[in-house]
Specification:
The protein is mainly alpha-helical and 127 residues long. The chain contains six helices and two strands; from the N terminus they run αααβαααβ. The chain has one domain. 50% of the residues lie in helices and 8% in strands. Helix 1 packs across helix 2 and helix 2 packs antiparallel against helix 4. The longest helix is centred in the first third of the chain and has 19 residues.
Length: 127
């Protein structure tokens, strides 16, 4: 993820992360509704959210909600992609919600710590 020399990526705040999760959850509800009514059968949207996070975050570093909120999830160690396995772990812990709410000084939730990831703000392009 290239950044201008005068800008260093900084951890994302809770607000944009939560907004991104809401967008992703809405998409998962929509996708899950093709299988079953989410008001009756609750697991399809949850499964879609785990898979969405596993594949998209694991390979590309962001979900559609993260892209809209200008966020990127990368490896804490090297700033690269975290891979599908770690993305799935992150997604599984994300659906439990509590690990995502408990954050450290770097604004990494327990799900990020377990997956070795960090969510960063994407810098605005230079004008």
């Amino acid at each position: 993820m290239p950044t201008p020399a005068n800008q260093t990526p900084e951890p994302a705040d809770f607000g944009p992360r939560f907004a991104a999760l809401l967008v992703d959850w809405a998409l998962c509800l929509l996708a899950g509704s093709f299988y079953a009514d989410p008001r009756v059968v609750a697991w399809p949207p949850v499964l879609v959210l785990v898979v969405l996070n596993g594949v998209l975050v694991g390979l590309f570093g962001q979900t559609p909600g993260m892209a809209l909120a200008r966020l990127r999830c990368v490896s804490f160690a090297d700033g690269g992609a975290i891979g599908v396995a770690r993305g799935l772990l992150r997604g599984l812990l994300l659906v439990l919600l509590i690990p995502a709410v408990i954050q450290d000084a770097d604004r990494r939730g327990l799900h990020d710590r377990a997956a070795g990831s960090i969510v960063l703000k994407r810098p605005r392009p230079a004008a």
